[in-house]
């Protein structure tokens, strides 16, 4: 027991190599075998396409730090994207569309948190349940069809630039800055560490772990709502399978980034690098014309390699 | 029994905190029975007692984790209630737990001020510079030189303990409760802790100190309260008492002693021999011998390495050096090898480790013997049923049938099923870890009768128990562990509670 405490992981900087090596290796690999991979346009494209995943993976990091999981994120994103499409189509207002998406997303996140914190349902099961609900609702509101004809104000969000930088990249950076400040510089952030690391310590400090846990899941749902706007803008429509499997990529990015599934050991920058790794992998495989089925499998391999490295690290 | 003892230094100071007539019962156990306890300002008050004497319960009542069934609290002479940990905190009572209440991936400063962070300019943020400065100042006052921005997870046990103490002090704790604080510390770290305790005392902080080490009791204590069976036996000052007298106060529990035991005239051949066994789990240089027909006790305090010895013999933990000879041949490796050779480990948590609670009595009885019963690999329900029925009769397991779900049986009968399971597998050496925990008195006698019969038929037993009375009445011999080593061996004639406690504590 004593040895275990002494041979502990040092500062988070020691984790840089893991995910950085993975990302570096992918860039070198695709730079060599995928034509056009290293062109500025393609690299910018990789980042733009990583925006939505960033917005899911960052809150997912916080959820996983609480020793939780949110499997419903992809399905909730699909639903919020449809809400954005339907409401903005009806009202011709991008902001009202965003509001609808955020509202629905936050509601799902709060329900997830409530199921986990108050009812004590294991996160895997609770969010699997809401995944099904969100999927079903998506089919109902869309009638199984794409929602088309959405206003330009929505579509422009994905294609516009700000001082030469694509707006999605700006949004991703702002999101990252927000989460970084939240986790490392606020009281709430400290309590997220404590939720996974030592919930008793929170209780002893007179704080309510349950309320905090609900807030963490609600944040995840809210982010899925905002990401819904970007998804609708990107597809120029609402589509009933738009977010299919995105929770998988988000969890993969968090795992690749070195966040541990135990004891509140999380690292946001690692998640960001993990998101880019997943983006690079998918983009590179696209460029060498491998079918999307192979892409899914390759992200799976990436996760296993990352968790294997995680295991090596914790044993070392 | 006098409820009051004069305060330290003979000054007639009033107690800072006084507990009167505290009782606390759990189903089947009276954890605390009319305990009174007075703590004076600036004193180190030692709490002494065997495993299960009520020290931890008293501590938990003190810090509000348990609510007492009866009794009163007085703080500075005023009647108060401690109904929650928040109440205790308001009174300035802080507990340094053995398992720390720290968040592993936050830094020292954030841990100290968790929930009370200095607010930054932007709402919700932490004033980083102030939290570090405040933490630094606090750490300085307790003489702990360390950078408060270091992540707690990278600290050693002693350093984490210092952070815990700093955290308690930051909450204006006037009363610190420490539960065996030196258990995981090196000699040097212990010295640092003692120096800190002296400084806290000088500042008027009162300390309740639970210890199993006689040397500490006399080196640090201003007063000593001895508990036994949930009762306060006496309150004394170190100067007025000898270690031997303290030991005598601790032992002598009143327990039903009608355990059946037929001692063999002369022990059988050696079945298990452990030579110079050292294992990374924290045991070193263990030498133990168990003969057929014997029940050998393995005692010592919780955490002294008893369970680790059992696990090493069974192959459940890796071994660094030394030799284990079983039935004439060396044994090493995995639990399944040990089990096939005839060693049975019956763990303390039989619910999690010994039984499949949702399966039937019959399934549980034959599960370890499947290879032996059905060498062809084909399962024969009727053969299985016969074996199970035979064992149920032989062990007198009280169950309506072999099809009954094990989880529905009483604790004693569950224990019998575990024993039966190993018997079916052909076990010769039974290692019991706390075999009577959670079992009522009647069932205890039956379990001992069963063990007695097993060894009379040529098997042997190694019994780990914190119930020293039981060891004394049932065992042929006993080894006493202390801090990972065998501190001594007691023959049948030497086997008394007093001798066990003496060897188990830091006191020869």
Automatic annotation (TrEMBL), chain A:
Transmembrane intervals: 16-34, 46-65, 95-115, 121-141, 162-183, 212-231, 294-312
Query: What subcellular compartments does it reside in?
Result: Cell membrane
> Record's superkingdom?
Bacteria
Keyword terms, alphabetized: Cell inner membrane, Cell membrane, Membrane, Transmembrane, Transmembrane helix, Transport
This one is known as ABC transporter permease
Give membrane topology per the record: Multi-pass membrane protein
UniProtKB/TrEMBL annotation, chain B:
Quote the InterPro entries the UniProt record gives: AAA+_ATPase, ABC_carbohydrate_import_ATPase, ABC_transporter-like_ATP-bd, ABC_transporter-like_CS, P-loop_NTPase
PROSITE patterns hit by this protein: ABC_TRANSPORTER_1, ABC_TRANSPORTER_2
Q: Which CDD domains match?
A: ABC_Carb_Monos_I (cd03216), ABC_Carb_Monos_II (cd03215)
Q: Which domain of life is it from?
A: Bacteria
> What residues does the ABC transporter domain cover?
17-254, 252-508
Q: Which UniProt keywords apply?
A: ATP-binding, Cell membrane, Membrane, Nucleotide-binding, Repeat, Sugar transport, Translocase, Transport
One GO MF annotation is: ATP binding
Q: Which SUPFAM superfamilies match?
A: P-loop containing nucleoside triphosphate hydrolases
Role: Involved in beta-(1-->2)glucan export. Transmembrane domains (TMD) form a pore in the inner membrane and the ATP-binding domain (NBD) is responsible for energy generation.
State the family it belongs to. Belongs to the ABC transporter superfamily.
Name-wise, this protein is Sugar ABC transporter ATP-binding protein
Q: Which organism is it from?
A: Bradyrhizobium campsiandrae
């Amino acid at each position: 027991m004593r040895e275990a405490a002494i041979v502990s992981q040092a500062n988070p900087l020691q984790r840089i190599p893991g995910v950085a090596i993975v990302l570096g290796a992918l860039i070198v690999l695709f730079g060599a075998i995928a034509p056009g991979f290293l062109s500025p346009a393609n690299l910018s494209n990789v980042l733009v396409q990583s925006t939505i995943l960033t917005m899911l993976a960052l809150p997912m990091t916080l959820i996983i730090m609480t020793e939780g999981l949110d499997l419903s994120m992809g399905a909730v994103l699909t639903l919020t994207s449809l809400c954005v499409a339907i409401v903005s189509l009806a009202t011709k207002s991008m902001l009202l569309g965003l509001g609808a998406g955020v509202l629905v997303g936050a509601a799902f996140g709060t329900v997830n948190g409530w199921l986990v914190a108050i009812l004590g349902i294991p996160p895997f099961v609770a969010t699997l349940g809401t995944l099904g609900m969100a999927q079903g609702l998506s089919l109902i509101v869309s009638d199984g069809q794409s929602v088309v004809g959405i206003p330009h104000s929505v579509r422009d969000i994905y294609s516009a630039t700000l001082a030469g930088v694509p707006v999605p990249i700006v949004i991703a950076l702002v999101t990252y800055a927000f989460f970084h400040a939240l986790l490392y510089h606020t009281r709430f952030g400290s309590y997220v560490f404590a939720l996974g690391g030592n919930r008793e310590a929170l209780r002893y400090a007179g704080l309510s772990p349950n309320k905090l846990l609900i807030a963490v899941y609600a944040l995840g749902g809210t982010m899925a709502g905002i990401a819904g706007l970007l998804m609708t803008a990107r597809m120029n429509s609402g589509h009933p399978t738009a977010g299919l499997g995105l929770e998988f990529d988000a969890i993969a990015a968090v795992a690749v980034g070195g966040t541990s599934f135990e004891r509140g050991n999380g690292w946001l920058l690692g998640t960001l690098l993990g998101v880019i790794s997943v983006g690079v992998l998918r983009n590179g495989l696209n460029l060498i014309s491998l079918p999307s089925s192979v892409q899914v499998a390759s992200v799976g391999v990436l996760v296993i390699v990352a968790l294997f490295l995680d295991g090596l690290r914790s044993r070392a | 029994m006098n409820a009051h003892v004069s305060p330290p230094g003979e000054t007639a100071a009033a107690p800072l905190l006084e507990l009167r007539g505290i009782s606390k019962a759990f189903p089947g156990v009276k954890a605390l029975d009319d305990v009174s306890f007075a703590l004076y300002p600036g004193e180190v008050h030692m709490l002494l007692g065997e495993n299960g004497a009520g020290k931890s319960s008293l501590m938990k009542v003190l810090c509000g984790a348990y609510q007492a069934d009866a009794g009163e609290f007085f703080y500075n002479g005023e009647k108060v209630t401690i109904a929650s940990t928040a109440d205790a905190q308001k009174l300035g009572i802080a507990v340094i737990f053995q398992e720390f209440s720290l968040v592993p991936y936050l830094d020292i400063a954030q841990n100290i001020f968790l929930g009370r962070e200095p607010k930054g300019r932007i709402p919700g943020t932490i004033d980083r510079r102030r939290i570090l400065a405040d933490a630094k100042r606090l750490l300085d006052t307790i003489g702990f030189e360390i950078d408060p921005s270091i992540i707690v997870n990278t600290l050693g046990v002693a350093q984490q303990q210092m952070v815990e103490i700093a955290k308690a002090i930051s909450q204006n704790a006037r009363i610190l409760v420490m539960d065996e604080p030196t258990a995981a510390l090196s000699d040097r770290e212990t010295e640092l802790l003692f120096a800190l305790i002296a400084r806290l005392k000088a500042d008027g902080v009162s300390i309740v100190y639970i210890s199993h080490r006689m040397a500490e009791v006399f080196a640090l204590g201003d007063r000593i309260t001895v508990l036994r069976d949930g009762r306060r036996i006496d309150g004394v000052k170190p100067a007025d008492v000898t270690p031997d007298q303290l030991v005598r106060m601790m032992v002598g529990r009143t327990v039903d002693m009608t355990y059946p035991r037929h001692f063999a005239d002369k022990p059988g051949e050696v079945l298990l021999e452990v030579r110079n066994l050292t294992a990374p789990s924290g045991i070193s240089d263990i030498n133990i011998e168990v003969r057929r027909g014997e029940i050998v006790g393995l005692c010592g305090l919780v955490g002294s390495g008893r369970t680790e010895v059992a696990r090493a013999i069974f192959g459940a933990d890796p071994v660094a050096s030394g030799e284990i000879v079983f039935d004439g041949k060396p044994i090493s490796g995995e639990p399944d090898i040990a089990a096939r050779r005839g060693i049975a480990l019956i763990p303390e948590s039989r619910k999690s480790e010994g039984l499949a609670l949702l399966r039937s009595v019959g399934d549980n009885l034959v599960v370890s013997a499947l290879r032996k019963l059905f060498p062809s690999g084909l399962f024969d329900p009727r053969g299985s049923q016969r074996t199970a029925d035979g064992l149920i009769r032989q062990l007198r397991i009280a169950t309506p049938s072999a099809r009954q779900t094990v989880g529905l049986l009483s604790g004693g009968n569950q224990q019998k099923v575990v024993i039966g399971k190993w018997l079916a597998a052909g076990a010769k050496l039974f290692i019991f870890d706390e075999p009577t925990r959670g079992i009522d008195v009647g069932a205890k006698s039956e379990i001992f009768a069963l063990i007695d019969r097993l060894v009379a038929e040529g098997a042997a037993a190694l019994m780990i128990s914190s119930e020293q009375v039981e060891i004394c009445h049932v065992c042929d011999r006993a080894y006493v562990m202390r801090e990972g080593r065998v501190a001594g061996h007691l023959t049948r004639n030497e086997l008394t509670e007093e001798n066990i406690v003496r060897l188990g504590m830091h006191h020869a």
